[in-house]
Structures are given as structure tokens and as C-alpha cells.
Design brief:
Layout: H1 2-16, H2 37-40, H3 46-58, H4 60-81, E1 86-89, E2 92-104, E3 107-127, H5 132-198, H6 204-239, H7 273-294, E4 299-310, E5 322-331, H8 339-405, H9 411-445, H10 454-457
Helix pairs in contact: 4-5, 5-6, 5-7, 5-9, 7-8, 8-9
């Protein structure tokens, strides 16, 4: 009866377990550290920081990246379950119909029919002598690490693209302000030129050229308005809000971040997600190769069964109906048509391919970081030249105003000087924003690490 009690307890325990455990936390776990808010705060733009926090909370790409990681966590649990014993309960009800008779030597059994009630609990465990199941679990864990780096790469790329669009929007806002001034100035030039033409001081060609210039400036303004609308819509997608206005600073409040190192250690590439992914992929395939080798070895399964077997329902729970058996089942494939050998060769080729991909990734990482450094240095140099050029043009404009004060220049000369100044100012605005975007590109190329700390961290 003790065996019977054990069976009943096991059945009750199995039946009491829910088929699917409900996860209390339905939201995917996200990583605020991947946002690297401390780095973005160095841009001294509160609107930028607040927008990035909204992206962190709402963006669907970040949510999906987190869900991919959680999916792979479940795959690890599924594979780990293969390392544990299995326990199953299966019932069977059958009716035997025998006829016309059966002969066992001198004993003859006539025609009969009967029910058979079978209620066994079966346990099995594959003894992992060669460590194959453990290696398979390690392989799946490396896949999980790869997905974690993919999630981090999503954060780096998405935040960098968002901030680039954000500063491009600020640049477009400033361009529109300057463009409106240019149109106003050119309208004055057209008016003054028309007056000159009416009194015979200039040709019709000069007037038509100025009017043509005015239409060109208006066309540029239309293009800036189009770019502004596109950027706003793009940022709304990042923020997952199709109606919210994009809070942003004005151009005049934007300042360059200073003191970013322009030379880095060669091992900077170890911060990049794609480099780490390639390393993890080599480890994963290495585990797969070892598993493929162990497929040639025999397997050993320990099994046992305990339960009830009766031909009449009223005797099912009697002690005479109880049964128990156990044993060890070794197995070895003597011939599999070359499948295992082909699998081993396939895994080895995969490993060689992963090594080549790893070496290529190193070169790509170095190339992107060097390109980012060149872009950043060039952008800074261009911005300095643009500032100098703007200062020179500002002096020219001031001198023209002084000349106008003493009657040495006309109103038209003042308008031409102002227009030239505004044209150079647009170049200065463009180069300044390009310097910020180049810094963002360098941040992205180095793997989303604070550029001020990178040489001290390695």
C-alpha cells in the first residue's frame, strides 16, 4: 500500500501544476544604462535628455529588442530542461477480443474478451556522461549573450539616429530664420534695383537677375519647410507619438562639447556590440563542434516505471495491481548514413566561417572608428574656418554700414553686404551642427561609450 500512496501523491502533485505559469511582469525588462544618459547630458540640452527618456519609455524597437532577449532566456530554460530527468503520467484503457482460441503447448485458451486498465508513471534520465547536454546549454547561453549585444546595438543606433535628427531639426529651424531674412533682404534689393532701372541706372538684365535670385531663395525656403516636416515626423516615430510637438532648443542655445579625445587606444573596438557578438558566436559554434563530436559516442538512459495494471476496475487500486520496473538502456548508432560525420564537418566549416567573420569585423571596426575620427576632426576644422569667415564677413558688413553713415555707400550696398553675411552665416550654422553630428557618429562607432572616459577605461 505504500507504493500506492506514493503513486497517488505524485499524481496529485502533477495535476496541481499549471500548464503555463503566468508571468507577473508582462513588460519586457529594459536597460536604462544602455541609454548612456550621462553622455547625452554633456550636450547641455534638457529638452534632448527629456526626449531620450521618452524614447526609452515608449519606443517600440527598444521594446522588441528587450522581448528578443527574454525569448532567448526561455530557450535557455528549455535547453536546460533536457539536462534534468523527465517524469510523465499516461493512462491506457483497452479491450482485448481474442478468438476463436489460442494454443500454448497443450493448453488451449478459448475465445474471450477483457478490459485492461494501465496507469503508469514513467521516469527517464539521460546520463550526460560525455557532457553533450551541458555543451548544448552553453551554446544556447552564448546565443542569449549575442541577443543581449543586439539589444545594446539597437539602443546605440536608435539613440544616435534620434539625436542626429534632433540637431538637424534645430539646424533647419535656424536655416528657416536666416532664409526669411534673406528673402526680406533680397526683396529690398529687387525693390532698389527696380528703382534704379526706372531711372535708367541699370539694365533690365540686372533687374531680372535679382528677381530670379528672389525666386531661388523662396524655393530654398520651401525645401527647408519640407525638411523640417520630415524631421518632425521622424522624431515622432521615435517617440511613438504622432501628435506631440517636438520640444527642442533654439540654435543659439546649442554649444559644442569640448575636449573630446581625438586619439584612442587600439583596443577600443572591444566596446562595440558587433565585436562582442562575433566573439560569442565563435564560442557558440565551438560548443556545437564539441557536441557534434560526442554524437559518435553511446548514450545511456536510466528509466523506471511505477503504476497500476488491472483487468477489472474494482481491482485497479489493489496491491496486486501495482507494478514497478527499472533499468539502463544504452544506445549506439552503428550506421546513420554518414549523417553524424556530415554534421561534424558542417560545424567545423561554420567555425572556420565564424573566424573569418571575426577577423573581418575587426577590420570593419577599425575602419569605422578611424572614419569617425577623421569626420570629427574635419568637422571641427571646418567649423573653425566657418567662424573665421563669418567674422570677416561681419567686419565687411560693419564697414559698409560705417561707409553708409558718411554717405560713401548706398542702401543697396548695405543690402548686398547683409545678404552676403547671411549666406556665410548659413555655412557657419551647418558646420556647427555637423560638428555635433560627427561627435555622435564617433560615439556610435566606438560602441556607445562616453568618449571622455574611453581611454581611461581601457
Amino acid at each position: 500500500m505504500k507504493k500506492f500512496h506514493i503513486i497517488i501523491l505524485l499524481i496529485c502533485f502533477i495535476l496541481s501544476q499549471p500548464a503555463f505559469a503566468r508571468n507577473k511582469n508582462t513588460e519586457p525588462q529594459k536597460h536604462i544604462e544602455y541609454m548612456n544618459i550621462e553622455w547625452w547630458e554633456k550636450f547641455n540640452d534638457e529638452n534632448l535628455t527629456n526626449n531620450l527618456l521618452k524614447v526609452y519609455e515608449k519606443n517600440y524597437d527598444l521594446k522588441n529588442a528587450a522581448l528578443k532577449v527574454k525569448e532567448n532566456e526561455q530557450l535557455v530554460k528549455m535547453q536546460f530542461a533536457n539536462e534534468l530527468p523527465s517524469l510523465s503520467l499516461s493512462g491506457d484503457l483497452s479491450r482485448d477480443l481474442r478468438g476463436p482460441y489460442q494454443q500454448y503447448g497443450n493448453m488451449r485458451i478459448p475465445t474471450y474478451s477483457q478490459y485492461n486498465y494501465l496507469l503508469p508513471i514513467t521516469a527517464a534520465y539521460e546520463v550526460d556522461i560525455w557532457g553533450s547536454n551541458r555543451l548544448k546549454t552553453k551554446s544556447v547561453k552564448q546565443e542569449l549573450e549575442i541577443m543581449k549585444q543586439a539589444e545594446r546595438a539597437t539602443y546605440i543606433a536608435l539613440t544616435s539616429d534620434f539625436v542626429s535628427d534632433y540637431f538637424n531639426l534645430i539646424k533647419t529651424d535656424k536655416f528657416l530664420d536666416i532664409q526669411n531674412e534673406l528673402i526680406e533682404t533680397q526683396t529690398g534689393i529687387v525693390s532698389k534695383t527696380k528703382d534704379k532701372y526706372e531711372i535708367g541706372l541699370c539694365s533690365i538684365n540686372e533687374l531680372l537677375a535679382e528677381e530670379k535670385m528672389l525666386t531661388t531663395l523662396k524655393e530654398e525656403r520651401n525645401n527647408h519647410l519640407k525638411t523640417q516636416e520630415i524631421l518632425i515626423n521622424s522624431l515622432r516615430v521615435y517617440l511613438t507619438d504622432s501628435t506631440d510637438n517636438i520640444a527642442r532648443n533654439s540654435y543659439d542655445k546649442i554649444s559644442l562639447i569640448q575636449g573630446i579625445p581625438t586619439e584612442y587606444n587600439t583596443d577600443i573596438i572591444v566596446n562595440r556590440p558587433d565585436y562582442i557578438q562575433e566573439e560569442d558566436n565563435i564560442k557558440r559554434i565551438g560548443f556545437d563542434v564539441r557536441v557534434a563530436k560526442r554524437e559518435f559516442l553511446p548514450k545511456f538512459v536510466i528509466y523506471g516505471q511505477i503504476g497500476l495494471n488491472a483487468y477489472h476496475l474494482d481491482t485497479l487500486f489493489n496491491s496486486a495491481s501495482q507494478f514497478f520496473n527499472a533499468g539502463v538502456m544504452p544506445s549506439l548508432d552503428l550506421f546513420s548514413g554518414g549523417r553524424k560525420l556530415a554534421l561534424l564537418r558542417f560545424r567545423k566549416l561554420e567555425y572556420e566561417e565564424a573566424l573569418n567573420s571575426y577577423q573581418k569585423t575587426i577590420l570593419e571596426c577599425i575602419k569605422e572608428i578611424n572614419s569617425g575620427l577623421v569626420d570629427y576632426k574635419t568637422a571641427l576644422e571646418n567649423y573653425e574656418e566657418a567662424k573665421n569667415r563669418l567674422n570677416v564677413q561681419d567686419e565687411i558688413y560693419n564697414l559698409m554700414q560705417d561707409k553708409h553713415t558718411i554717405g560713401a555707400s548706398s542702401d543697396l550696398d548695405i543690402l548686398y553686404a547683409k545678404e552676403a553675411y547671411l549666406m556665410v552665416q548659413k555655412e557657419e550654422v551647418s558646420d556647427k551642427i555637423n560638428s555635433l553630428i560627427a561627435a555622435i557618429g564617433l560615439y556610435k562607432a566606438t560602441g556607445g561609450v562616453d568618449l571622455y572616459k574611453i581611454n581611461t577605461n581601457l
